[in-house]
Amino acid sequence: MLLFLCTISFAGAGCHKRTVQAAPPVSTPAPPTDTAPPPTTEPKPTPPPETPPTPTPQPPSLVVPPPKPAPVKPHPAPVEPPPTPKPEPPQISPQLTPAEQAEAERLTKKDIDTAENNLQVAYGKLLNATQHDLVEKIRGFLGQSREAIRASDWVRAKNLAQKARVLSVELVNSL
């Protein structure tokens, strides 16, 4: 019997869920108005101004969450100034003696003249795709050769003019 009573007491005292409830709102009692103050000769003190009643706490399910702060706008990326253009690297060319330079100038001008004359022969003729490609390459080499002449790079100018001449001869032979 004792064992039965112990089992029932443990079962009865088991895991009961207790619900937590908010405390009822506490209101401040108003001062009684039915009693009159005793007559005195002193002036009446002014009553303190009425304070608004304190808000009563609401149950957790009715509590409105505080407003979320506005999202932070990302700051625009700092504007970087455009990079300054790098100067062209200097052209390294061998130093020519005055005689070598004069010979390079003569050969360069001769090759340029030959290439231009061969282009004049092809001018006005119907060219296929390969011949048209050769004409474009010849013009490119001639332009680069003239740039090298302006830079006084006679070795480079001579090599480019020679390439233009060789291609122009090939063009004339294909016509």
- Taking all Cα atoms into account, the compactness measure Rg is 53 Å
The main sheet comes to: none
End-to-end separation in angstroms reads: 128 Å
Total number of beta strands? 0
List the secondary-structure elements in sequence, H or E. HHHH
| Global shape | rod-shaped
Low-confidence residue ranges: none
Overview of the molecule:
This protein is mostly helical. Helix content is 45%, strand content 0%. It has helices at residues 2-12, 98-122, 129-150, 154-174. The longest helix has 25 residues, at 98-122. It is rod-shaped and about 130 Å long. The mean pLDDT is 75.
Q: Briefly, what is this?
A:
With 175 residues, the chain is an all-alpha fold. The protein contains 4 helices and no strands. Helices cover 45% and strands 0% of the residues.
What attributes does this structure have?
175 residues, mainly alpha, 0% strand
